[in-house]
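This follows on from our talk about sequence and fold. Can you supply me with one protein entry, sequence and fold together? Could you add the entry underneath, on a fresh line?
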Amino acid sequence: MTRDPDRVIILDTTLRDGEQSPGASLNATEKLHVARQLARLGVDVIEAGFPAASPDDRRSVARVAEVVGQGDAPPGLDRPPTICALARAVPGDIDSAWDAVRPAAFPRIHTFIATSDIHMRHKLDLSRDDTLVRIREMVARARSLCEDVEFSAEDASRSDRGFLKEVVSVAIASGATTINIPDTVGYATPREFETLLHDLLTDVPGADGVVFSVHCHDDLGLATANTLAALRAGVRQVEVTVNGIGERAGNAALEEVVMMLSVRSDELALWTGVQTAQIMRTSRMVSRTTGLPVQPNKAIVGANAFAHEAGIHQDGILKHEATYEIMRPETVGLTRSTLVLGKHSGRHAFRVELAEIGYELTDEELEVAFREFKRLAEKLRSVTHADLEALIADLFVRPTNGFRLLDLQVVAGRSGMPTATVKLAVPDGGERIQAAVGAGPVDAMYSAIAEIVKRPNTLLEYAVHAITEGIDAQGTVHVQLADDRNRIVGGYGSDPDILVASAKAYVSALNRLGVLADGPLSGKNRPKRDRKTTQTKEDDMDETKRTSSPKPGPAEDTPGPAVRRQGSESEGVQDLYGVDEGRAWALQWDAAALFEAPKRLPHGRAMT
């Protein structure tokens, strides 16, 4: 089949590279929900994971291949998306990747090896000749299993140019159908990256018979610019993530690249198959599923992207939208209307509205969600799409067989000590009740929960978001915790009562810590170095044996689980913002009132 030279292939790696963001680990159900939405979005290739990283990841990739990879063609496309799995250039990884993706109608194996001297010498302990032999053998092995094989030269932008051309030539000759040139550490500038890609496309034998691709990281804030420069050079596949999430500073954002090509077709006469009206819905699902909030000023999908406050701007918009908007909010899926669902709504309407926001539930899941929806509708005057998204995330986006909040009572005020009593369902099927005091209501509540769960952790972030309007607004709380190995997880909860939402978020994050403690130490769950000295994370693609950093010790004189707050006690007021289509507002919470504590709390738990 002849390929349109102006058609850009979109490979979405949210479920693989995006999931490598600290605290963004996804379970199989979450991955399937996101993969279905990516198919609706119209991406061409879904890189579903790294099967060799863990048995759970292999099962998740296989499930995506079975359900999404064999599904109906999304609107605007003539086939279901290709399902891709990442594999190091070693036999076991390649075989595992093939086993995972083979159920898909259009499977792909994506194998890689580092080609820069610094990586070959210090990480792989391979010579250039050894690397070429490995590429020849492993690409050929992948091609013997699968017709669609992608090869990536990791750290290509820092590789010797002559050697990189040799690498690409060997990969093509060995059967690769797509050649990916990553800017792995976000080092390149747009001009030099465009020159690099132009030289490879011009000088490498057989380059005109394969698709060239790029995968750009944002360490210097140039990921999108470098991706567009590569397209100008002749590249026709881009590897991107929703909201730009990913390792370290993240990746080129899907929404930015796609909308650039849509809005500035006069500059780059290229097109994609992405259904842009699904962008905002996809962004929200990824944010809620991963627990990673979108910054308000984020291009295309941020809460402020289509918000206008200055009087001059408002006057211009009222007279003509194009004065200050280069694209209409409707083109990315924003709507100014409010969904009216209430306590009188039935299951049919509930199911239809869930489908509208991208969730397909089984009959059993629907019954659970509908009961919770009815309870929520009794508290709120109306239930919006944002409320539904928060409800589904709270019910299903959490580890199974963990702790669960059953009841909560908090007493606080100017006089007396804040006291919290919590009741949790525990994994063995029983219930536990615990009371504790604290410096504030949230501190007391978290102390009681910590006494039941008994998982040492450091509280890194506590953020409150209002997701609907009015005095009965539903709120969402997002927390980030680190365990005693400095592995980071996120958790969130939603409820009209912000204290209940806070408790749900903390329990959710503790359950994720339990998954890390009980599961294999793979990929991004490996220990990080001391946060005080460096923020670098062990790369889950390292092919050499690692030596983990020493574990940080527990809080001084702490007999039980320690819950610590990052930062000084004089941080003052934290500004926390809402993210719902620009309708949410800034909330200011007094950090001292919530968390500030003496050196020793009355119940004997140390705070730092």
About this structure: The two ends are 63 Å apart (CA to CA). Residues 519-608 have pLDDT under 50 and may be disordered. The chain has two domains: 9-290, 409-595. Residues 498-518 form the longest helix (21 residues).
